[in-house]
C-alpha cells in the first residue's frame, strides 16, 4: 500500500477574482503576507493548501474572503451556499475579464504532513 504525504481534493467550485484594492485588507492576506503573486482566497479549512486551477496553474491558498466558504459549508447567511474561491489578480480589468466561472479545481493539502514531520523532529 502506498502512503502519500498529502491529500487531494477535487471539487467543482465557483471561481471569482479580486484585486488588492478591494475590501479592507490593505494588501495583506489573512496569513499576514502581502497580497501579491499566485494567491487564492479559500474557506478556513483549506487555508495553507495549494490549488490547481485549469488554465491558470498552481496557486497558494493564503487568503480568506467574506463570502468564500468551505467545501460543504451551507450556513453563511448572505453568501452563496456552494463552494467558492477567489483568485488574486493584478488588475481590476483582469479580474473583471475573468468574471465568475464554475470549474473543477484540485486542492493539494500538505498541512498534515508538515505537522506530523515537525512532531517527529521533537521526539
Spans of at least 5 consecutive residues whose pLDDT stays below 50 are: 76-82, 114-123
Strand percentage, roughly?
25-35%
CATH first level: which class?
A: Mainly Beta
Q: Which structural class matches the secondary elements?
A: alpha/beta
Report the order of strands and helices: EEEEEHEH
CATH fold title? Barwin-like endoglucanases
Rg on CA atoms, Å: 15 Å
Looking at this structure, what is the CATH superfamily? RlpA-like domain
The total domain count is: 1
**Total number of beta strands:** 6
Q: Architecture in CATH?
A: Beta Barrel
The geometry reads as globular
Query: Treating each run of at least 4 consecutive H or I residues as one helix, how many helices?
Result: 2
Overall average pLDDT: 76
Q: Tell me roughly what share of residues is in helical segments.
A: 10-25%
Separation, N- and C-terminal Cα atoms:
26 Å
Describe how the helices and strands are arranged.
Layout (H helix, E strand, L loop, with lengths): L6 E12 L20 E3 L8 E4 L3 E7 L20 E5 L3 H7 L2 E9 L1 H12 L1
Parallel strand pairs: 1-5, 2-4
Antiparallel strand pairs: 1-6, 2-5, 3-4, 3-6
Would you kindly provide a written description of the structure presented here, covering whatever features stand out?
It contains 2 helices and 6 strands. The protein is of the alpha/beta class and 123 residues long. Strands 1-5-2-4-3-6 form a 6-stranded mixed β-barrel. The chain is globular, with a radius of gyration of 15 Å.
